[in-house]
Amino acid sequence: MQEPSPSIIRAWGRLIRTERTVVGRIEASLKSAGLPSLHWYDVLLELKRGPGGRLTPREIEAAVLFEQYNLSRLLDRMEGEGLVRRIPYPGDKRRQIVEITDEGRALQERMWSVYGAAINRFIGDKLTDREAGQLSALLLKLLQE
Amino acid sequence: MQEPSPSIIRAWGRLIRTERTVVGRIEASLKSAGLPSLHWYDVLLELKRGPGGRLTPREIEAAVLFEQYNLSRLLDRMEGEGLVRRIPYPGDKRRQIVEITDEGRALQERMWSVYGAAINRFIGDKLTDREAGQLSALLLKLLQE
DNA sequence: TCAATTTGCATGCACTTGCATAGAAACCAG
DNA sequence: CTGGTTTCTATGCAAGTGCATGCAAATTGA
Known about the structure:
mainly alpha
């Protein structure tokens, strides 16, 4: 095997470590405010953005990169909390539509007030907009293919 | 709350998504080679680097950013597989020393041949060394504090 | 048109992680 | 010293995740 170059290895290590650290900090902010985790937020936000606050599980899955079975059970829990509602998909009985409830919208907003502040604190305060743009561009290269 | 700027939000989203995607690709490489996960590798590598192949759990924890209870149980499993050995810490009966075994070293090497190749493929092929350096520098800023 | 395949979602089971806390040893302040 | 505190590791229990597979509905193709 051709050894990866030191700068590549370093970048990879930093990517993992940084993600873990920043996610940890942000999750801690949410938790200490008594709010659920980022996964819940991701789903709520996607739904809110979807047409009429609705998406199919497959669409959510693609947007947030969860496994099908994990999303299925996450939706169970969120439905149990009254944050989303599953309704039948007209014309295809295999599929379903997930719709965000008013309660779900309210939670998304409450979460954003904490989450947004955490993003400011743990990212916004550390990078200029220009640097953030550079970072996004570099990360995009890794997503290719 | 002061809304985070769009470029900050975008960078944050990319960070999570990229990490998730690349980790997923690399884990898939390991799995399809019948090898254990990155967490195991991280522990093996830290130990191998430690003096005499030894570290305390706390040292490993700090290096790899695992939770104490998760590391404790991961070490149980690794010890069960004969990759690692726990030995008493002289002079402090609360503590312990974890030592990598020959089998552990062998596994670390087998994993690296797959892992290193995956890093090349999923990162090395997508970034120049110069870009990797820029990425590391930007991520380092996020780790500060 | 209908058998075979694919698609969408759910679920049993084992494994892993999070949380709280236990228990033992070491440390520290008076 | 010694009683209270801190440090280090382990663990019971609940929650979350991965894997394989199930079932039902839709789609495909000979």
